[in-house]
Structures are given as structure tokens and as C-alpha cells.
Write a structure and sequence with these properties.
alpha+beta; Hypothetical upf0131 protein ytfp; 5-stranded mixed barrel; 7 strands; globular; Gamma-glutamylaminecyclotransferase; EC 4.3.2.8; transferase activity
């Protein structure tokens, strides 16, 4: 099992969460909530209002999201879904645990005295330079005050 941190449309209550609970795509077990140890710019960009975490450590906010344990099948699905490695790149990032719900893995979360885990995160280093000038968010909600509703793939 691998650990993945999601911050956008794959979180609970967001438009693509259905993929996280579709066992035909693999297994994803919700473990808890966290935020990036380093600050990153989280922007909403493109004509489909897609959330992107730009791989610019030290800029932006401590981005909030959810931590999942996923099997190899789900990890492969997520790589494909996220357009890895062209649109997003899957990289290891340090995630501060905010709330842990993982059963049987609670000791694993406590293993790091500072409550920090390494998780795979889909961020991007391949973005148009003008995205750096977009507003930065600390957390993503597709129906947030930003008014930039995400466009589902099947509606594009």
C-alpha cells in the first residue's frame, strides 16, 4: 500500500471523489486529514477550472487535504487519471497529520514524533508561467467563493 495526499477534486464531497470509492479501480482507504509541511501555491486554472498545486516549495499556503492508503491498482489508476507525468507529476511530500482516523495504522501515524508523513502528491512543475500570478488557496472546494466551478471530464 502507498500513501497518497489529495487536495482537489478527489477529496470527500468533491466532483471526482466517486473514483476514490470505486473498488473496480482499486482500493483507497481514508486515513485522515493533513496539510503540506511546506507552503505551495494551489491555483484553479484552465478553461475547466482544475485545481493544481504548483511545485514551488515555500510559496503560497500549507495546502489542506486528505490522506489515503491505496493499493497498486488504485495508484496506477490515479497516475492515469492525473495525466502523470505530463499534466501532474507524482512526488513525495511531507504532510503534517491534522486528524488521523486510520484504523490499524494509528501507530504508523504516531511513529513520526512530529506527526509528519511522507505521501505521494500530484503536483505540477509543467504549467504556464502566468499561473504563478493566479490567486493561491489554502484548501480547495469546487463550489467555493472563488466561483470557478470544476468542469467534469464527461462535460468537456
Amino acid at each position: 500500500m502507498a500513501r497518497v495526499f489529495v487536495y482537489g477534486t478527489l477529496k470527500k464531497g468533491q466532483p471526482n471523489y466517486k473514483h476514490m470509492i470505486n473498488t473496480a479501480k482499486g482500493l483507497a482507504k481514508f486515513q485522515g486529514r493533513g496539510r503540506t509541511v511546506e507552503k505551495y501555491p494551489l491555483v484553479i486554472a484552465g478553461k475547466y477550472n482544475i485545481p493544481y498545486m504548483l511545485n514551488i516549495p515555500g510559496t503560497g499556503h500549507h495546502v489542506a487535504g486528505e490522506i489515503y492508503s491505496v493499493d497498486e491498482q488504485m495508484l496506477q489508476f490515479l497516475d492515469e487519471f492525473e495525466g502523470c507525468p505530463d499534466m501532474y507529476q507524482r512526488t513525495l511530500m511531507r504532510i503534517q497529520v491534522v486528524e488521523w482516523e486510520g484504523k490499524g495504522g494509528a501507530g504508523e501515524a504516531r511513529a513520526a514524533a512530529d506527526g509528519v508523513l511522507e505521501c505521494f502528491v500530484y503536483s505540477t512543475a509543467t504549467y504556464p508561467p502566468e499561473w504563478v500570478g493566479l490567486p493561491y488557496y489554502a484548501s480547495y472546494d469546487s463550489s467555493g467563493k472563488h466561483g470557478l466551478a470544476y468542469v467534469l471530464r464527461e462535460s468537456r
